[in-house]
Amino acid sequence: MPVYADLHLHTSASDGELRPSEIVSSARSIGLKAIAITDHDTLSGLPEAIASGKKNHISIIAGIEISAVYDPGTMHILGYFPAYPQGLEERLSFIQEARRKRCPLIIKRLNALGLSVTLDDVIAISRGGQIGRPHIAKAMINKGIAKNSAEAFSRYLAKGKPAYVEKEKMTIEDSISLIREYNGLVVLAHPFTLDLQPYELKLLIKHLKLLGLAGLEIIYPEHTRSQKRLYTSIAHNLNLFITGGTDYHGPGRNNVSIGDFGIEKPAYDYMIENFNT
Length: 277
Ligand code: AMP
Ligand code: ZN
Ligand code: FE
Ligand code: FE
What we know:
Blueprint: E1 5-9, H1 20-29, E2 34-37, H2 46-56, E3 59-68, E4 75-81, H3 88-91, H4 93-112, H5 119-126, H6 133-142, H7 149-157, H8 172-181, E5 185-188, H9 198-211, E6 213-219, H10 225-238, E7 241-244, H11 265-274
Parallel strand pairs: 1-2, 2-3, 5-6, 6-7
Antiparallel strand pairs: 3-4, 4-5
Helix pairs in contact: 1-2, 5-6, 6-7
C-alpha cells in the first residue's frame, strides 16, 4: 500500500527550507492525501498550509513538535489537533522567546572558538521563522566553516559539543498537558533519540501513557528494523497507535523526500477516529 499521510513535516515557520504552500504542493504532486505540519514550537506555518491544502484537495493536520526536558538523550513530543488550536500559539510564546535568547549564546561560543558567524547571518537564513540550530549550521556552511550540516552538528552544535547551549524547555508533564488542553493527540516522536535500553524505554512509555500519550512515531527514516519491531510491540502492549513521517526539513537535508515515510489509509483513519477521544 502506498503512503497516504506523511505526519512529520517542517516548514520555513521553523527550520524547514520550504514554505508551507510549497510543502503542500509537493505533497500533492506525489499523491499524498494528507499531511501534518509539525514545526518546532510554533503553529505559524499552518494558516498558509491549510489555505493551500483546500486548493490542492489535501487534508492538513495541525501539528506541533515540542522539545521536552529530558537527559541525556532528546525527547520530542508531537501534538496533532482535530482543528487549528486557537490560542495555543500565544501559550508557546515563552519557548519561542527561549529560542531567541539561545541563538546569540551559541554564536558567542562559536566566536570564542574563533569562528566568525554573526547573528545577522543566521537571522537572514531563518527568514523570520523560529530560529534553530539548523539555521546556524547553514550559516557555518556558507562561511566554509563546515562542509555540511552533519559536520556542523558533530563538531560544534550537537548536545555535548563545544558550541552547544541548552534551551529552556517545557517539562514532559507540561508539554503533554498543554497538547491535551487543546484536544490534541500526543505522540512520542522518533523514540530512538531517547537513547534508552529496551526495558527503560518500556517503563518510560508506560509512564507517558499515564500522562496522556496516545501514539508512537514508529515509521521514521532513522529507525532500524529491530527498533521498529521493539516499538511496535510496546505500542501493541500499551494500546498506543502508530504514526510515521519523514521529518522532512528541505530538499538538501537527510536524503529524504516528502512521503518517503508515513502511514497508510487504515492507520490514518484510525488516528482521525481517535480525535474524538
Ligand atoms: P533546535 O531546535 O535548535 O534544538 O534544533 C533541532 C533540529 O536540529 C532538529 O530538528 C534537527 O533538524 C537538527 N539536528 C539535531 N541534531 C542534529 C544532528 N546531529 N545533525 C544534523 N541535524 C541535527
Ligand atoms: Zn527541525
Ligand atoms: Fe524531532
Ligand atoms: Fe521534527
